[in-house]
Structure formats: C-alpha cells, structure tokens
Amino acid sequence: MAKNIVIIGGSHAGVSTAQRLLKSASTPTAIKVTLITPNSHMYWNLASPRGLIPGNYEKDELFLEIKSGFKQYSSDRFEIVLGTAVGLDEASQTVTVRCAEKEKSVAYDMLVLASGSRTLDSSPFKNIGTTEETRSALKDLQARVEAAKSITVAGAGVTGVEVAGELGSAFGKEKKIILLAPGPRVLEDMLEVNSDIATKELQRLGVEVQLRSRVKESVIGSNGQYEIILSSGTTITTDLYIPTFGLAPNSSYVPAKFLTSQGFIKVDEFLQVTGTKNIWAIGDVSDLEQSQWIKAEYQSAHLAKNLIKILQNQAPQAYKKSTTPMMGLSVGKDMGTGHYGNWRIPTFVARYLRKTLFLEKLTEIVTGTAF
C-alpha cells in the first residue's frame, strides 16, 4: 500500500519537495503526496519588491496554480487540500485542517512541515493566507504606491534595499523616497563593499538614505499620513510607510514542545523534528538556517532524497549546512550586488543573475521540470 507523505506548505519548499518525491519514487504506487496549503497558487515572492510597482507584472505572472502543475499525477498519487493547518497530533498521526470554515483530519505516514513564514505587518512580501488575500494585498499596496507623493521604507536589509531600489527606478524623479537604516550602513549582514555599491546606486536613483534611523513607532494621522517616530526623537511625515523587517514562522499548528521560544521548529541534522519519528521540517519554519530561498532549495533536495532512502530501508544522510555566507540582490532594475563568503560577486554578474528575479523558475518548480 502506498505511503501517504503529507506536506504542509504551498510555497517553494513544499511544492519543490512534492515534485521531487513524485519524480523520485521507485514505483508509481510507492507513495502518495498530499499537499496542504491555504494558497491555490504558488507566489513568487522573490519578485515582490518589483511587483509592488504598478504595471510591472500586468498578467499575474507572480502567481501560478499549483494543481495544474501536478496534472500528470492521478488522484491516488497526488492530492491538494486547500486549507490551513490548525492542529498536529503526533500520536494519531493526523493533521487538522480548516477548509472553508470546516475542519477535516488528514492522516499521514510521513509528514513534512514547510509552512514558511510571514511578515509581521502582513505585507505581501510573503504569502498572507489564501492566494486571493495575497493578490488583494499586493494590488492594494500597488495602488497606495501609485497615489503616494512620499514613501518611507524602513529596514535596510535585502528586502528594504530592493524595495527602495524599485521605487527609485520607477518614481525617483517624481516622489520623495526615503530608506531608513537602523545601523551605520545598509545591508549590514553583507560585505561593506556591497553596502557602498547599494548606497551609491540608491542615491543615484533619487532615494534618500538615512543611516542610524531606527523606527520606534508609527501612527496614522487623521489626514491619512503616517507619522514615523525614530528612536532619536525625530518624526518623519510620509504618505506611505513600508516596513520591511521582521518575519514570524507559520507554526501555530505545531505543539509547543517542538518549537523554539521564537516559534521556529526544532530539527536535528537529518532535518527531522526533534523528538519525533516521522516528521521533518524545512525552509523558513525550521530553526536550522536563515530565511533564504537557496537554503530552502538545498533542504528540499536533501530531504526528498532522504525520504526515498527511508522508504527503501536505507539509512538517511545528515544534512550539511553551508558555512559560507552568500547573498545577492537587485538595486533597481539595472544594478545588482552580492557576495560569496568574502568574495564580492562582480556587479555585472550580479546584475545578470538578478535581471529576471528568477521568475522563470516559478513554472519550472510548479510543473516539476526543474527536477
């Protein structure tokens, strides 16, 4: 009888793992994959900073239906359950899912937790819930960007710099755009040369970069404008405020004993949830590595191979975390920067690699042609 591998999460880690497992199964009847996700479409959030600019993606290119990507599999091999996981019972090996205000129980033989993370302010730089909710939030943000005469972006990590860069490319000559960096430079987790390149390009695009400007509080006034109060006591008045810092794991359905104090799922060197026999966690929701697309990709590939090994009564292999930090980003449409360890990636290489924001991979992942 086929083993039912249940995967929670319809973003990169979950969808990739589902396709990898189905393509790697030794026989057509070896496994059935059940994907539990609130979003019917996979959202390519890597391109969300560019997506907030009205007109950049007019054909809904950032979303692709998941079900259609698995149409080659019969219902006894693949099933998608549209709903939100609200409970996990390890003893009975079941997941409770809320589907359209009703709850159902889904049994599993093996369980993969790939439910990802969300932004603290529910902004569409990550999935918000259903595809309709994420689409709506993105369109709403686009409308507010278009209407605003002044925009302040807070947080000068990768997302903040990419957002400010896209805004500068599109509106630098007609809107006042400010990027608030809490520290002495933007991109503090990258090389200093990366920070210098990004800062110069942002300034060229018309973005005002304010360093050592940490947001203490933001309020909306009676006129609809935002009042941003900095830790220094300075107040900035702006039409639109876009915070880009802070992620929270989507782990509310997981028993507390499996979570860190911050809500991330504790895993061992095999990506197995600590203290369990047949539950694994990968991607943003895991406590193993930082939230990064490439980390989720590595974890997905490793776990899929391990699960097949286990099904074939072979010993799984330990996952080796990369000890070399690496990161790349776009700064507007025509500039990019990045590093691998202490080596700066040449600007022309970073620009070329980030030109499309890897949007072409969305179809490859959902349909499985990438694997």
Automatic annotation (TrEMBL):
GO cellular component, one term: cytoplasm
The UniProt record lists the keyword Flavoprotein: yes
Entry keyword set: FAD, Flavoprotein, Oxidoreductase
Pfam family membership, one: Pyr_redox_2
MF terms in GO: electron-transferring-flavoprotein dehydrogenase activity; flavin adenine dinucleotide binding
Annotated family: Belongs to the FAD-dependent oxidoreductase family.
Protein name in UniProt: FAD/NAD(P)-binding domain-containing protein
Native source species: Bionectria ochroleuca
